[in-house]
């Protein structure tokens, strides 16, 4: 079984890392006390789960010292165990907690004999957490997220976990401007400059998937030129969206009624990119 332990300082990105792994198909558990890790592995192994990710933090203070022994025992049983330790500078952590207005997990703990009215400051909590986690910092790969964007952290976690990147899904959606622009559109292209088949009474009841409409628009130089421009634009910028770890990209193509020109363009674009990409074509105004 592949077991990935995510640990480190609160506010350094453990939730971001765990979400990446959950999206990749890992069975994920947050804030699991280390003594329960072997039992969890046995349980999910019996359910034929092959990938498990567990987040461990300083709230399990009493049992953190046993984590290195637990990791070693799991490896001896034949499990592939990898540890990722996330950290950040105190300055960065203070800024993050201030921005999110969340309290530090250790701020709710009371030390023996401590007055409930005298809570520890954020910096005191961060320093104590560093001290608690010191024995396990060297267990695995350390990532300093101080100057790291959330997106870059996702990419690094995927690489360290040897997670295959889920292919981006490219949506081409036709729509009618008179009914509004789709809210989920990343790019919107207006094809109303193309001659409208609607004004041909024989084509009016048809749509952009019907052969007579396709033949009509194929014969229009404006349609062919505009199609080539949109296709070139999407092809140019698609690699950047893939590199940005996007799961999908929606290209909306609109005309007046969402029946002829936009449907034709969306179908043509979908057919072109389907040879190399995961493509979905949908028509908002069509039944």
TrEMBL record:
The keyword Disulfide bond does not apply. It comes from the Bacteria. Keywords: ATP-binding, GTP-binding, Nucleotide-binding. Residues 169-285 form the RapZ C-terminal domain. It comes from Massilia forsythiae. InterPro entries: P-loop_NTPase, RapZ-like, RapZ-like_N, RapZ_C. Gene3D superfamilies: P-loop containing nucleotide triphosphate hydrolases (3.40.50.300). ATP binds at residues 8-15. GTP binds at residues 57-60. Coiled coil: none annotated. HAMAP family: RapZ_like (MF_00636). GO terms for molecular function: ATP binding; GTP binding. Residues 1-159 form the RapZ-like N-terminal domain. This is RNase adapter RapZ. PANTHER family: RNASE ADAPTER PROTEIN RAPZ.
């Amino acid at each position: 079984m592949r077991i990935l332990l995510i640990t480190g300082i609160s506010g350094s990105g453990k939730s971001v890392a765990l979400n990446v792994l959950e999206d990749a198909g890992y069975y994920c558990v947050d804030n699991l006390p280390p003594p329960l890790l072997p039992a969890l592995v046995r349980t999910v192994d019996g359910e034929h789960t092959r990938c498990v990710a567990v987040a461990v933090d300083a709230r399990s203070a009493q049992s953190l010292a046993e984590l290195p022994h637990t990791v070693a025992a799991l490896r001896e049983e034949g499990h592939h165990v990898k540890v990722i330790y996330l950290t950040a500078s105190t300055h960065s952590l203070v800024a993050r907690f201030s921005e999110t207005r969340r309290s530090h997990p250790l701020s709710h703990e009371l030390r023996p004999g401590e007055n409930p009215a005298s809570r520890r400051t954020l910096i005191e909590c961060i320093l104590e957490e560093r001290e608690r986690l010191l024995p396990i910092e060297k267990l695995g790969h350390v990532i300093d997220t101080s100057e790291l964007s959330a997106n870059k952290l996702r990419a690094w976690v995927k690489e360290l976990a040897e997670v295959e990147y889920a292919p981006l899904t490219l949506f081409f959606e036709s729509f009618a401007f008179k009914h509004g622009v789709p809210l989920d559109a990343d790019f919107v292209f207006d094809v109303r400059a193309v001659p409208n088949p609607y004004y041909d009474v024989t084509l009016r009841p048809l749509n952009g998937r019907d052969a007579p409409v396709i033949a009509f628009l194929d014969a229009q130089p404006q349609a062919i030129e505009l199609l080539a421009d949109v296709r070139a634009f999407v092809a140019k910028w698609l690699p950047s969206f893939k590199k940005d770890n996007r799961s999908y990209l929606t290209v909306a193509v609109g005309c007046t009624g969402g029946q002829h020109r936009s449907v034709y363009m969306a179908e043509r674009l979908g057919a072109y990119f389907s040879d190399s990409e995961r493509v979905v074509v949908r028509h908002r105004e069509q039944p």
